[in-house]
Specification:
- A hairpin with a 5-residue loop joins strand 4 and strand 5.
- This protein has 146 residues and is α+β, with helices and mostly antiparallel strands.
- The protein has a seven-stranded antiparallel sheet with strand order 3-4-5-9-8-7-6, sandwiched between helices. The chain has a two-stranded antiparallel ribbon with strand order 1-2.
- The chain has two helices and nine strands; from the N terminus they run E-E-E-E-E-H-E-E-E-E-H.
- It is 27% helix and 49% strand.
Length: 146
């Protein structure tokens, strides 16, 4: 049976074999796979728009890692359009892929980061997509003006 997270205006399902950590003060939740891949959602109040959230995420990654490739990314889940960046970089001789996607809903901006080693990223893509679909379905059902 899948796990279910509900908090700070969002809800989504995730694999029960993954580990959940939530920080209500930071309004952030992370789900980590046994292999170390993860999905993190952070809520920003309406003072941060989608572009700013993505720019801040990309900037933080560029400060942390050398030589990051950055390409635009657009995904659609449950009728919601998510825009952001797909970043690729090398860490400990491994190629790492990291998606940064923004969702604006109900007076808040949610920044989603999905990150995994390249081989795990490809294999776990359907799992990440299922979690994003669950998240977007919840948002779409809570307000038809998304």
């Amino acid at each position: 049976m899948p796990g279910n997270f509900e908090g700070f205006g969002i809800a989504f399902l995730y694999p029960d074999s993954w580990t959940l950590e939530s920080d209500s003060d930071a309004k952030s939740v992370s789900i980590e796979s046994p292999e170390g891949a993860f999905l993190t959602v952070t809520r920003f109040e309406n003072s941060i728009d989608a572009d700013t959230a993505i720019e801040r995420g990309v900037s933080a990654m560029q400060q942390e890692y050398d030589e990051i490739e950055n390409e635009a990314l657009v995904k659609n889940f449950a009728g919601l359009r998510l825009e952001g960046s797909l970043l690729r970089f090398i860490y400990l001789d491994l190629i790492v892929a990291s998606q940064l996607l923004a969702i604006v809903h109900g007076g808040a901006t949610y920044l989603v980061q999905i990150q995994a080693e390249d081989r795990d990223y490809e294999r776990l893509g359907p799992v990440f997509d299922a979690m994003l679909t669950s998240l977007c379905q919840h948002l779409a059902s809570s307000d038809t003006s998304c």
